[in-house]
Each structure stands twice: as structure tokens, then as C-alpha cells.
Amino acid sequence: MADLDHLRARIRALERGNAPDAGVLPLGAEALDTALPGGGLARAAVHEVVPARTGWDDGPAAGFALALAGRALARADGPVLWVARTLDLYPPGIAGYGVPPARLLCARAPDDAGVLWTLEEALRCPALAAAVGEVGHLGRTSVRRLQLAAEAGGVTGLLLQRRRIPPTRAEPSAAVTRWRVGALPRISLTSGPRWRVELARVRGGLPTEFEVIWDDATGRFALAAPLRDRAAAG
Length: 234
Hints:
The chain has 7 helices and 11 strands.
């Protein structure tokens, strides 16, 4: 774990002046990628991950965010930054999501404002593969600032909202996507985690739901079952 001053020094040491990559990050499951404009998760953009149910789905939401970070690590050099008020990641467990502890930087901030400030600074650093911030309250202006920082640095940003009432489906956001994640039983003792994932908001696309499995052997998502196109069903 690093304090904010030490973290800033490490990030500056990593900077190589890379040009931002405005492409997309394929998630590995064709149906999931097809639901995203461009065929994958937009890089140089901010994405929200929220639990479907407060408290109960905090762990699954964190696991999904880790898996997204793992996909970013597989496609880009540099580490992932994880900043939060309380750091409770379990190092032996995160490697299964494609995030080796050696490529993870962790920082603790005193409050949500500190998390957002650190995340904004990190998103401007092209040496990072991704940056994850655990926050409680999120204002649209704050997310817009983060989105502009991600576009400037070419870094994938993930906002994980744990330990709070999740935003409603209709609540606006400046993030490119919002994912609502709920727990599902594993298919077997040896299978990866399984989630009910709702793409609740997506810029330029339609809301959709899936059942997905994380395959730690391949470091990719796999589709367990498509649920429904929520826009069409409504």
C-alpha cells in the first residue's frame, strides 16, 4: 500500500509519454462485446460498476471490477491502480481475475473527495493500464471530470460503488457505461464466479442483461446465458 505522495512519485516514474489509445477492450464473450459499441469496453473512458443489491452484492461487484481490470492488464502495459477509503483486497485471490499482485498499486484516501482526486490524477497517466476507485457518493460533475481525465490519458477508469444504495436505472451519469452486478451460484466447485450482469446504461447502445462466467484459465468472460434486452422487453 502506498500513501498518496509516494503513489504520485511511482506514477511519475512510470510515465513514458505514450499516446492515448482510443480503442476498445474486448471482454471475450461475443454477445457481451456485441452489446458494446465498437465491440468492447471503451478505453480512455470511465465505467461504473454497482452492486445489484446493497451489501449482498458488494463482493460480486468488486470481483467484476477486478475482472475488467484483468482484461485491461492483458491488453496494456503498466499496472492497475486501486484507490479506496478502506482497502480489503485479498492478494492471493485477485490473481485469479488476471491481476497479479506485482501489477497492482493500492492507495488509501481519507474520504470520497480524496478517492476522486487520486483517480483523476491517475487517469491522466498513460503508463497505467487501468485505474479503479471505490466511492460512495458520486456527482455527475465529478464523473465528467474523470471522463475528461481518462480521455486525456488514454486510461480505462472504473468506478466501483460499494457500501451504498446503488443508483437507480434512470439516474443520469457521465460515465460511458453502468454495470449492475448480482451474485449467482457457481456452476461447479471448479468453475469460475458467475454473475447476473445488467448493462444498465451504455452510450450509443441499448440496455441488456446477461449471465456471465469469469474463466480464470483464459482470463476472459464467457456467456452463461443471455437474459433479455431490457429496452425491448419494456
